[in-house]
Amino acid sequence: MAIVRTRALLAALFLALAWPAGGAAAVGDPEVAALQVALHARGVYQGTVDGVLGPATSEAVRALQRTTGLPADGVLGPETRRALGPFGRPRLGSRTLSVGARGWDVASLQFLLAWHGFPSGAFDGRFGSHLEAAVRRYQRWAALLPDAVAGPATIASLRSPLPVSPLALTWPLGLPVGDPFGPRGYAFHPGLDIPAPTGEPVVAARAGRVVFAGRSSGGWGNLVVVAHGHGVRTWYAHLSQVDVAAGSRVGRGEVVGLVGSTGISTGPHLHFEVRLRGAAVDPLPALR
To answer: pLDDT tens across 78-108, in order?
Structure first.
């Protein structure tokens, strides 16, 4: 009975704070992500900040309770929330957020921004310069006042459905995905990583115009970016060789380069991104 009661209480808590209907299963809950960040700050959670209330997160709540002398029931009640310290409060939407803020709501904001295509580095519950820049970029993307302040309008916009590619794409490399789009540790991976041998041909996912081809900054190594219209661009990174030139047009399935491990990379693979007007979106729903 105690286990059933604990699960029911946890479910009631997080349903009250839940992600908008239709998105929870796919992306996780920003409130659960904030809990994971707070538990990590207390040294009791070492898992991925994915917004999923799984066994590791529940056990971390109990570990915190044991270390602070509270009943280890796994329930995030008022005393447990206080035990989380400054990262256990306040909830998203209870205040306006800007540089210098820290807390539960900042972690929720970081998580929401990442899933909407504007990751800001580590999920750490601190509003620093990287988060400031990400908020400003998102506001421009969403046609909001780009003041880098997360007030009611920005937060409401971030609770809308996630952006998706309006265009269908084909696979740039016919091999299994090694690392998907989404949370990775305490950060966010904005594309797909497809491991492959060095020299494997990489093809354009759709016809378009090459807008960048060459050595890039930011750890991408040799990079090709193709614009396809409707605000959609595809990125092909870490290439060992670039086989197209900026300004040229490519057809669907045309080779744009070869798999490599240039830039910041731990081994040969293709890092493939899809961006919609600058927002990184999950490529999988568009791939055919």
So the answer is: 999 999 999 999 999 999 999 999 999 999 9
Band of the pLDDT at 235, cuts 50, 70, 90? very high
Calpha distance 256→70 (Å, rounded) = 59
So what's the pLDDT on residue 269? 98
The Cα 192–Cα 180 span in angstroms is 5
- What distance in Å separates the CA atoms of residue 285 and residue 238, rounded to the nearest whole number? 23
Among 5-14, 45-54, 147-156, 168-177, name the one with the lowest average pLDDT. Answer: 5-14
Say how far apart CA 106 and CA 108 lie, in whole Å: 5
Q: Which of 204, 200, 184 is nearest to 267 (CA)?
A: 200
Question: For residue 4, what are the contacts with CB-CB under 8 A and spacing of at least 6?
Answer: none
* Partner residues linked to 227 by β-bridges: 209, 233
Spatial separation of the C-alpha atoms in residues 39 and 55, rounded to whole Å: 14
Q: How far apart are the first and last CA of the chain?
A: 47
49 within 8 A of 110, measured Cβ to Cβ: no
- Classify residue 86 by its DSSP letter: G
Phi, psi of 104 (to 5 degrees): -55, -45
Q: How far is CA 14 from CA 19, 34, 39, 57, in A?
A: 9, 12, 16, 13
pTM of the predicted model as reported, rounded to 2 decimal places: 0.89
Nearest to 120 by CA among 105, 108, 135: 135
User: Does residue 245 sit in helix, strand or coil?
Assistant: coil
Separation of alpha carbons 44 and 36, rounded Å: 9
- What is the set of domains in the chain, with CATH numbers? 2-158 (1.10.101.10), 182-286 (2.70.70.10)
